[in-house]
Amino acid sequence: MDMQAESTKYIFVTGGVMSGLGKGVISSSIAKLLQLSNQKVSCVKIDPYLNYDAGTMNPVAHGEVFVTEDGGECDMDIGNYERFLNQSIPRTHNITTAQVYSSVIEAERKGEYLGACVQIIPHVTDAIKERIRKIAKVENLDMLVVECGGTVGDIESLPFLEALRQIRLEEGPETVVFVHVTLAPSLDVVGEQKTKPTQHSVQELRRIGIQPDLLAVRCSRPLEDSARKKISLFSNVAVKDVFSCHDAESILLVPQMLYDQGIIDEIFKKFGKVGLVNTSTNWDKWNLIVNSFHNIKDQVKIAMVGKYVKLADSYVSVNQALKHAGAKLGKNVIVDWIDSEELNGNVERLSSYDGIIVPGGFGERGVEGIINTANFAREKNIPYLGICFGFQLAAVAFGRYVCGLTNANSTEISPNTENPIIDLLPEQKTIENKGGSLRLGAHEIKIEDNTLAFKIYKSNLIHKRHRHRYEFNQKYLDLFVSKGLKFTGYSDSKKRMEILEIPSHKFYFGVQFHPEFSSRPGYPEESFEAFIKAAGA
Ligand code: GLN
User: Fold this and answer.
1) Distance, CA 480 to ligand 1 centroid (Å)?
2) Which of 36, 197, 242, 357 has its CA 20 to 30 A from that of 138?
3) Domains in the chain, ordered, with CATH?
């Protein structure tokens, strides 16, 4: 083992009782507190499922697919880490079973284990440990928070938890802290907080050799003393190490909640570190950002018309980016999620909104509703922000209703359309595998002077994250320009159009990229800020 990796301290976060407890927010909050304490910190998410990455999963079932700078299609928790830490997280920080097993199988085929029977312990667990330690070493981290997805007791999680247990054994208790996230439900509003689910889930963890050091207990009201004591006794965790994670008005308040209960001192003590550095300026900056979300008077009403509106998490970055922009501008952004399938005939209901946003999407369902929405926003001069699919379908709407190409479409929706306004990227035509094959990650975009795009980004050059297979077909470029729609941002020496705008409109802005992935609390992505400004004007 090398020296660098040894010096990194690890915080391993596991989950019990059930999914959806907010392990991602708790992990991000702990990482944030460590960062505020002047530690060089990052986060890793382990996803024990068999998909290679999140790219092929349905956002309505699993939440948004978050795209990293380097083109990873990751679990949405990576987005939480980026937003809390205000730092980009590389794709290697989202580890899945498929990635680990494929590397082990590949190594076996190459003959790297010649003579050995290849097994989960030690070969798979070694591969997991190597990935975690490599991140710590390459990034020269003081501390690394590793969140293990799923719930203790799941079959898929076992090799990962075993690997984490081994790291603790190998590097010693002063290097590793285990945090277990559980639930203390109360059956009615005034009812007693039940500790049994926590007791059972800690037992399950101990059965596989892990004694948690800290417990983060989710509950609706602050954890009562009696419940805390009982949990401590039955789970062999000191009372001071049982933390209440009760419901908060906003996830940004969770770091403070944990800090007030002394979590940072406890973690530092367990790592054998005493005498904290002065971090008050870090705190002041962070508090300023957190407070900006709470002292808001005005409101703007935004309609978000999309395909995956049934689960709040499926557009989490878009929702967050709207809130970031609102907080900066002192506006409370009220977002109504509208299923585009319900909008075929009755787009009129959108006239009561200050702005309309159409986020990304794939496939045919609900497309006509989106095209009608983009057209309605244009006709009624309502501020419009179209992201990726929302950019493409705004172009289709313009083709149909302004350029007179009545059957205009995207070949994703209608492969044989006579007017393929949106068509496959040329390099996509020969691709067969669906996984990991979209145009992904950050690409350079050039922006023309004297345009709305330039006004928004104040630069001729930006880098933005992408996730698409289709693009604007430049055969139609001159026609569109002659009818008043301008393409003001492009990439790859004008090979692809990246930004569209209608100068005669109050605010009509479409982007082929995904601005939401680079928006952070306190630092809203520029196009979101401009959109909310226009909507609130
Ligand atoms: N389905 C479109 C494409 O693949 C848009 C993708 C998206 O909105 N992320 O190009």
Assistant:
1) 21
2) 36
3) 9-290 (3.40.50.300), 297-535 (3.40.50.880)
